[in-house]
Amino acid sequence: MSSERAPQSKRPLRSAKPVKAAAPVQLADSDGPLFDDLGLSEATLEAVRQAGYTQPTPVQAGLIPRAITGIDVLGQARTGTGKTASFVLPILEQMAKKPQGPAGVRALVLVPTRELAVQVRDEFEKLAQGSNVHCVAVYGGKPIKSQIDKLARHPQVVVGTPGRVLDHMSRGTLELRALEIITLDEADRMLDIGFRPDIEKILRHCPQSRQTLLLSATVPPPVARLATRYMRDPEILDFSSREIAVETIEQFYFTVDPTKKFELLQRLLEREQPQQAIVFCRTKRGTDKVYEKLARRSRRSRDADEVDVACIHGDLAQGLRDRVMKQFREGKVRLLVATDVVGRGIDVSGISHIVNYDVPEFCDDYVHRVGRTGRMGRDGVAYTFVTPEEGPQLTRIEVRIDKLLQRDEIDGFVAFDHRAEKSNATPGQTHATGEEPAKPKPAAKLLGKGRGAKRFRRAL
């Protein structure tokens, strides 16, 4: 390993005038910037054209020109806004400018999940066509020997999860002495799931002269501290909009008795007939149970050879996870039952519906779950199943996104008997009538004046 890089002296983040995108999930207007206007070389522009990209998204238009100058950049933007290409293209541009650079890995991308590592590698391969840039993905769940063999062929770019990258560094199969640029993608998620020590070890072993790009949907204090410590006067580009929830996504909730959740799911799928949908469950065991029930229903209604439903979670073998995601991207799988392993960063453009079979544990997980639909300005719809005890969680989600979810019901199906709940009420209690307030209140107002009790009863 190369000598450790001393942490940067702690100083306030340098913020350029924030780049605000009014609708960050939409493509640029026809009179907006083109890729030709971003300072890319002709070779990179040709790769962009071959990939079928026409106009940059606001994130790409804002981040690419700054990144190719070599400065450190902290970009805040949700998934589904074109973030991957916004750092892949500057890396490829750097490779093109100095094609005869020193032997060794010249660019490293750290991501939180195996699926995202594969997706980023695929994006590199798509945009690197016609060049000599070779990218390798390294992550857990796959035999390390095959990854060692690939690294021995001296790829210029490595994409990986922090744990597996650190494993290769300790074995001496990944050297970072020639590293020119490192990207931390979905930085907030990596810190959420405990990768901070691994990330810091990796950063300390990178050359001090490197360029650092940090992409994150949110910038909580831990992400800000990481940037302050390991980035050099980063320019901050904020592409987040006022509304955390994607504007093109309709969001509804059902109040449901826990024993009727699967029947509600069946009725909802029959009513909606989604093009593609992800059904999110909180636990691996719950994911398996819902998948098995849906699979039995699917086998009864379809040919045995057709794949209509699949599941994915962290206990599955990596080869199976890769196969399921490949089938889902190709449209061969219509319903994917999953844990939050696919809650972030997975870009499948055909997803029309999201169903939160279980309310997510954290509000940000809700934001990222529903962000799997409504990609790149397309329409989408999300449904959340809320049991009577989960009213406070619904309230927290609505406060987080500053928006009230609309109540929904299935004609002819009673998911929750409000009359029974009302009969058990103590004198003076007020239970929900199912009516929505005329206008959602701002989050600041919802946080005060007994907001919890009032909104809980509205949720039911």
How is this fold's topology laid out?
Blueprint: H1 42-50, H2 58-67, E1 73-76, H3 83-97, E2 107-110, H4 114-127, E3 135-138, H5 144-151, E4 157-160, H6 162-171, E5 181-184, H7 187-192, H8 196-204, E6 211-216, H9 221-230, E7 235-238, E8 249-255, H10 261-272, E9 277-280, H11 284-301, E10 309-312, H12 318-329, E11 335-338, E12 353-356, H13 363-370, E13 380-386, H14 391-401, E14 406-407, H15 418-423, H16 443-446, H17 451-459
Parallel strand pairs: 1-6, 1-7, 2-4, 2-5, 3-4, 5-6, 8-13, 8-14, 9-11, 9-12, 10-11, 12-13
Provide an overview of this structure:
This protein is α/β, with parallel strands linked by helices and 460 residues long. Helix content is 37%, strand content 13%. It has 17 helices and 14 strands. The protein has helices at 42-50, 58-67, 83-97, 114-127, 144-151, 162-171, 187-192, 196-204, 221-230, 261-272, 284-301, 318-329, 363-370, 391-401, 418-423, 443-446, 451-459; strands spanning 73-76, 107-110, 135-138, 157-160, 181-184, 211-216, 235-238, 249-255, 277-280, 309-312, 335-338, 353-356, 380-386, 406-407. Strands 3-4-2-5-6-1-7 form a seven-stranded parallel sheet, sandwiched between helices. The chain has a seven-stranded parallel sheet with strand order 10-11-9-12-13-8-14, sandwiched between helices. Helix 12 (318-329) links the parallel strand 10 and strand 11. The relative contact order is 0.12.
